[in-house]
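Good morning,

Attaching, inline, the backbone tokens for the sequence recovery test we're adding to the shared suite. The designed sequence is right after.
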């Protein structure tokens, strides 16, 4: 049995149901999306837990119910009586998405206020998974606290997996974002960046440069997603390239990277080698982007 704890923010999602202005309410968020797909890919003996903070209102209760019904562990979720959950709306144009967010009263922004609570949530875990968005929603002192706990978790034998998921609008400055992301890379065993984002904010001239930068920061494995382009990996200093699954009819790219991450992590947890894990990750992402919304039920589940 393997236990993975994902750390981040689950939000209310308003996703378009078609070309007209009609929306469906659901629950999603980058680390939650990865947890959802991990739960479908892994066996019943494996544990997928989610660590966040929710309110004590009806929406928060509905979110808690959704997580429980999805067989995602909720034992360590914090409840805040004076806060609620965030909300975002997806807008689509030819398969590409843009977002509007409302998260000022999100309880998830308080998830790292207490080191003991964070540490307790990760006791017995094999893997801790978090993202740049997890970092972005936290006050600076809480961000440092989370990284300290993850550093100790890694020192104690746990594996830390990080998706930089750069979202400039969530940060006070580009410099704050890039500094925090590189600090997170330094406590991580596996880093799963997207070259398009990294090129914009770090000036990387190629996916190879992105991979090398995180490898130099101390990551054992770096997997650089690159849309339809070649996926570049560095494993213990060895560079390799992989061809992703081609998708002719893209419907919605929401959760493309999140599902890729789930496919990669699950495959590695199941003992597959790097190339096999990349294939599994790319295949899953190709499935997901042919449907609307962040979360789809996989045919094999």
């Amino acid at each position: 049995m393997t236990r993975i704890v994902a750390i981040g923010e689950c939000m209310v999602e308003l996703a378009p149901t078609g070309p007209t202005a009609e929306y469906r309410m659901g629950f999603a968020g980058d680390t939650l999306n990865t947890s959802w797909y991990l739960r479908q890919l892994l066996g019943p003996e494996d544990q997928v837990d989610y660590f966040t903070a929710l309110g004590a209102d009806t929406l928060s209760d509905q979110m808690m119910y959704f997580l429980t019904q999805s067989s995602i562990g909720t034992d360590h979720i914090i409840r805040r009586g004076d806060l609620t959950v965030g909300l975002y709306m997806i807008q689509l144009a030819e398969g590409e998405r843009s977002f509007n967010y409302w998260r000022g009263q999100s309880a998830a922004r308080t998830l790292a206020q207490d080191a003991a609570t964070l540490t307790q949530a990760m006791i017995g875990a094999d893997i801790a998974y978090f993202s740049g968005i997890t970092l972005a929603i936290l006050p600076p002192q809480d961000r440092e606290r989370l990284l300290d706990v993850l550093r100790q978790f890694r020192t104690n034998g746990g594996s830390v997996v990080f998706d930089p998921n750069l979202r400039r609008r969530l940060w006070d400055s580009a410099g704050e974002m890039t500094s925090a992301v590189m600090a997170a890379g330094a406590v991580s065993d596996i880093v799963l960046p997207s070259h398009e984002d990294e090129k914009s904010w770090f000036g990387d001239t190629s996916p190879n440069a992105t991979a090398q930068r995180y490898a130099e920061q101390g990551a054992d494995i770096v997997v650089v997603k690159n849309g339809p382009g070649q996926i570049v990996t560095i494993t213990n200093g060895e560079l390799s390239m992989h061809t992703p699954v081609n998708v002719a009819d893209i419907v919605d790219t929401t959760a493309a990277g999140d599902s890729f991450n789930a496919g990669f992590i699950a495959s590695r947890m199941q003992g597959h080698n790097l190339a096999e894990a990349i294939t599994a990750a790319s295949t899953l992402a190709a499935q997901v982007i042919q449907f609307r919304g962040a979360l789809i039920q996989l045919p094999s589940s």
